Each structure stands twice: as structure tokens, then as C-alpha cells.
Give the backbone structure.
Amino acid sequence: MTTLKEMREKLSARQDALGKVFSEAKTDSGEYDFRQVKSDTLKECLGDGLKTTAQIVEKVNEKNAELDDLAKEAEALEGAEKAARQLADREKSGSRPPFAGGSNGSGNYPDQAARAKSLGEMVAKDARYEQWAKSGAVNGIDFHFPDVYGSDMLAKGMAFETLGSKTLFETGAGWAPESVRQPGFVGAATRPIQLLDIFPMSRTDSDTIKYMEETTRTHSAAEKAEGSAFAESVFALTEKESSVRKITDSIPVTDEQLEDVAQVNSYLNGRLIFGIRQKLDGQSLIGGGTPPALRGLKNVVGILTQAKGDDPVPDAFFKAMTKIRVTGRAMPTHHVIHPTDWEGVRLLRTADGVYIWGNPSEAGPERLWGLPVVQCDADSAGTGYVGSFLPSWVSLYEKRGVDVQVGYVGTQFTEGKRTIRADMRVALVFFRPAAFASVTGL
């Protein structure tokens, strides 16, 4: 039988081994390339005979599943030990003798056996004390009462008949109960960051992103007879640009809050930074494009459209993928679907009631036609999107990350206030709109 300590040590060792593999596999771009894991590390952490990436990935998944099982077993052992401690506490509590005030409801005692012994009575009637007294009371003597709580012992030290007094000791005349506030706080519900992870990120030192787009590409290659004029193609490039936009937020705060509450500064900084990124996340999908707003995917001119019509939802998304491949000449990478619309897909059933996207007892795959589904409610339900979210077709350019500053506005200096402000400057560029499509009428 494994102890909780042994289980935790085993779990920690397995986690360290798997973490070492991930550390060596992680590239500078944040992706994972298991080909760069050293052979010694593979042998030490995953075992012998792993030569291909597929074998390594399969072994990593197997080790990860083992970690899940070990963690569950550790939680079960921890719960069992907690239950044992609680049982011991209940047994100890159940052995308490009755205290004064409960024998007949009047606060007086008709028989001495009904009330708890005082500390003096407990000592005087203890066999160890009697033996010590008979031997001449030499030196001192220690007592230990293992079945008595420390709080009970203190109460016994004050146990005398005035506890039967008629004056009621209550909250109004005694100590007010102390209320200790729980640490931390319960955050308000808000839309999480949902899309930014799938947008390629780049840096820029300019206030405008300029690029060349091939707006004319006519291939006229043709077979010609000897001595005939060559065919002539037509190509043309056009300069395009997208301006860097600024997203801002701020909040005034008193000096006392910043000085007296340790977590206020980090709390406000975190909230401002999240709010700006949340706004950017929404703008990347539904931004209108009228300065100073960004132009999000929904309002990009030239993206393809696929109406659902009478098709099932999955069919409509597959047709949008086909349009991106044929018209946009790009490979789709992601679906963006409102949670309500995805619910309809997840609950699809066959005529005999079998769930197509997985049994209700399972989480089910969040994939559609092999592509990951990003659930996003920045746009309203009824419209979904398919796109090739690759750096060749779309990029989010940061002039700089979120910058947080503290300063004075107006008369704040004399009022003991300050303003914390945060902002970031970004540009969103869709290089090939036809690499994206909206799916309507869901």
C-alpha cells in the first residue's frame, strides 16, 4: 500500500521527467519540436526505442495519462487521511463531559455528578496525584489528560457555582463575535480572451504597416507555332497600408488605497491590462474599421461568404472551407463559432438518437472537419467564421505591448489622488481576405 508521501514523491518525479522533455522540445517561437529533444533525455524520461516524432508524441501522451492517474490517486489518499483526522476529532469531541448549565435548565445542579469536574477535582481524584501525595510530595508532578481539549481545560479552571447566575451573558452585553474576511475576492463574470491566441503576432517600429499586394495576375502562357509571337502575361502590384491604432484605459485611485492595501496596485494593473487585451480580442473579430477602431474579420472587404440555407451546420462550414481552398487558395486552420451555435453542433444526433459529436458522458472533441473550434461570443450568435490564420494571410502587429503608467490629472496632486493609465498600439492586417469566410444563417 503506497503512502501519501510516497505517492507525492512519485508524482513529482514523473512531472519533472515530463517537464524536462517539454523544456527541450520548446522552440524560440513557443511551439514544440520533439525532434530537438536529446536522445539521453528521451531514454531517461520516456524510455528506449523512440525514433520518430509520432512515437515520442504517443509516449508523451501515455506519460501524461499516467500523471493524471497518479494525481487522482494522491487526491484519494489525501481525502482518506483527512477523513481519518475528522473521525478522531469527532471521537474526542464526543468524550467531553457535560458542563454546568445543562442538567435541569435552571443553571443549578441537583447532583454533582451531572456537571463537569473542575480542574482541581480532576487533579485531586487522579491516581497519580494520590500516589505522589502519599510519597511525601517530593519535587513536582506532571499531568496529562489526553481526552480533554485545551479549551475545555481552561473552562474547567473557572468552573464554580456562580456559573449558575441568572444574568444572561449574550452578544449585546458581552463580546461581539469576530468576523474575519476571507482572503482574495470573487471576480465578476466577464468575457475571457478567446481569439488572440490564434492570430499570428509581429512587432513593428512604424505607425503604419505598408505592404505590396499583387492586384493583377494574368497568366497568358499558350502554345505557339514556330515563328509566332510570344504570349504576354500581365502582372501588377499595389501598395496597401494599415494604420497602427491605440487602445486605452485608466482609473483614478487615492494615495491611501495604494499605500494601505498591498494588492491594490497589482489588482488595478492586472485589470487594466486585461481590459485592453479583451477589447483587442473583440476588435479582432468585430472591429468596424472607422478610425480609431481596428477593422476586424467580420468587416474586412473581400472575405468570402457561405450561407447555411437548408444545410446542416457542419455542411455549411465544410463548404466555406472549400471556398477558401478554391477561391482563396489557402488552407483553412480554424473555425470561430459562437458557443450557442456550437451547442447545436455538439447536440447533433442520428435518427436513432446517437450523439454524433461524442457521448454526453464525455467532453467531446472541439473540432469540426479536422480543424479546431474556437468558441467566441464577441459577435452575436448566428454567424461563424472559417479562416487560414497563418502569418502569410493575417498578422497582428504590436507597436509595443501594454504600457502602464501612474501620474496626476488636474487637481489630483492636491487631492491625494493619482490616475493609473494603460494603453497599447496595434495594427491588424488581413493580407488575403479571400483566405477567410463567414458562415451565415446558423
